[in-house]
Write a structure and sequence with these properties.
This protein is an alpha+beta fold. It has one domain: Oxidoreductase, molybdopterin-binding domain (Sulfite Oxidase, Chain A, domain 2), CATH 3.90.420. Helices cover 21% and strands 20% of the residues. The chain contains nine helices and twelve strands. The strands form two sheets. Strands 3, 4, 7, 8, 9, 11 and 12 form a seven-stranded mixed sheet that branches. A five-stranded mixed sheet has the order 2-1-10-5-6. Helix 1 packs antiparallel against helix 2. It is globular. The N terminus is likely disordered. Bound molecules: ligand MTE. Ligand MTE binds next to loops.
């Protein structure tokens, strides 16, 4: 498939899938998958079980504002987005988060915001859901492991949330931290990463209009395995920058620590912009596998900045992206 990237301004309102259309599509998919399972195909049984826990089971997010953020590719089906995950706090296998993350208690949930800002404080998930306009953002997600999805997120522009705490001119970076609680997150008992999971962005990246704090997907609150109740989404960077289940956001003067970068700086840079011209030391980044496309689908070409170059390339003008990978 030829991936033609359109900017928000190129999208006609009639092409944007609404929340009700998602749910309608879910009903259609459920019927379709049941028929598929009827043919005796084993995979479909798993998919159907996942769909039964899908939209209609989690709390719906009301008043989602439709936006023009939508790539041309088809949206990945709910059962793939919610059963093929990376969330090492719940295990390192792709199916572990879906099976194990139910243990995570996401209410009440508070984020501490501190560091270089005039009004440090706390904010709860309920206030983020009710006090900020919730937007629909359909973004490509490109994992550093060379697979991809298209996810219909719901969320709040990160810039809107950060503004509330009045960052000062010393705030050059924004650091994010996941909950540390090995009782709820058994994967944290295994030293596969330096816990808690941490990530960071430069302040201009964090306040870029594409950067999102996701509160939901497919019109409902986030399933735990996708980073409930709040996760970052930075669509032009490899997926590991999109930190899940955030409990702290700090404005910092210096480049903050990031989990994968700390674990293996040679393989995972701080910037981690999607870049088909810079291979991972152990594999090529030129192509990726589309999750849910089927066994016989070919790989797709990876685009610079995951197809968002028109929007974000200026952030890196003059930088050597081989050095700052
Ligand atoms: N955040 C935390 N806290 N722990 C993780 O293991 N994995 C990252 C990112 N955020 C991860 C995380 C990686 S490698 C990817 S590709 C994405 O989450 C996957 O998001 P998804 O499971 O919603 O597709």
């Amino acid at each position: 498939m030829l991936i033609k990237i359109r900017k928000a301004s190129d999208i006609r309102p009639s092409e944007i899938t609404s929340h009700s259309a998602y749910l309608e599509r879910r009903r259609f998919l459920k019927a379709g998958v049941s028929a598929f399972a009827g043919l005796g195909l084993a995979r479909a049984g798993i998919a159907e079980a996942a769909i039964q826990r899908g939209p209609g089971k989690l709390e719906a997010i009301p008043d989602i504002r439709e936006t023009g953020y939508r790539p041309e590719e088809s949206v990945t089906e709910y059962e793939h987005i919610t059963t093929y995950n990376n969330f090492y706090e719940f295990g390192t296998d792709k199916s572990d988060p879906h099976r194990n993350a139910g243990k995570l208690n996401t209410r009440p949930w508070t984020i501490v915001v501190d560091g270089e800002c005039e009004e440090p404080g706390e904010i709860g998930i309920e206030e983020i859901l009710s006090g900020f306009a919730q937007e629909e953002r359909i973004y490509r997600l490109r994992c550093v492991e060379a697979w991809s999805m298209v996810v219909p997120w719901v969320g709040v522009p990160l810039a809107d949330l950060l503004k509330r705490f009045k960052p000062t001119s010393s705030a050059r970076y924004v650091a994010f931290e996941t909950l540390l609680d090995p009782k709820q997150m058994p994967g944290q008992r295994v030293p596969v990463l330096p816990w808690p999971y941490r990530e960071g962005l430069r302040i201009d990246e964090a306040t870029h209009p594409l950067s999102l704090i996701a509160t939901g997907l497919y019109g409902e609150v986030l399933p735990n395995q996708n980073g409930a109740p709040l996760r970052l989404v930075v669509p032009w960077k490899y997926g590991f920058k999109s930190i899940k289940s955030i409990v702290r956001i700090s404005f910092t003067r210096d480049e903050p620590e990031a989990a994968w970068n700390k674990q293996n700086p040679r393989e995972y840079g701080f910037y981690s912009n999607v870049n088909p011209d810079v291979d991972h030391p152990r594999w090529s980044q030129k192509y990726h596998r589309v999750i849910g496309a089927g066994l016989f689908a070919g790989k797709e070409k990876t685009l610079p900045f995951n197809g968002y170059a028109d929007e974000v390339a200026d952030l890196y003008a003059g930088m050597d992206l081989r050095k700052y990978f």
